[in-house]
Automatic annotation (TrEMBL):
Domain Protein kinase positions: 1-171
Gene3D superfamilies attached to this UniProt entry: Transferase(Phosphotransferase) domain 1
Domain of life where this protein originates: Eukaryota
Name of the protein this chain belongs to: Protein kinase domain-containing protein
Amino acid sequence: MELIKTSLRNMLETNRKASYIFFIDIIYQIAKRMCYLHDMHIAHCDLKLDNILVNIEEKKVVNKFIEHAIVKVINFGISKIEVSSNPKTIENNHIYGTNVFSFAMVYFKILFKRDPFDDCRRDEILERIERDERPKLPSNCDELTKLIKECWNLNPLHRPKFAKNYERLIIASSTTNSIK
């Protein structure tokens, strides 16, 4: 069994100096893993920082060492299997939509180094979500913040599927390579 050194939560708390591209790659890998699960008709149902493990490796590239993360999604204890084979399609989209919403919260935390609802009490979070209130997003990375907004749409049926998130992250990361 592979030894993974840290959770994404611990990595974010201790590794604040990593590059923007390093973090975009982590988001990309999470989307890729979730896309695979959905292709296999599995809804994770508990995507959060503690259920994402990260190994950081250093690689030498042209006389310079760069860090690269390897991401694993764990804890399938409350996952749903054979989701798409269930005839209740709307409910299936809702289950997958919940994963996409959770992805947006993780995505926000990675990019902006803070919890999405850190300005309110825990018992207020659900009320704010139901009122369609979301944290303010910076305007300096339009495509990425647009994707977050779509992923945390109040209606699960209007959230993009992970395959679409994955494609858009590829495009967004290639157009934002100069952002640090």
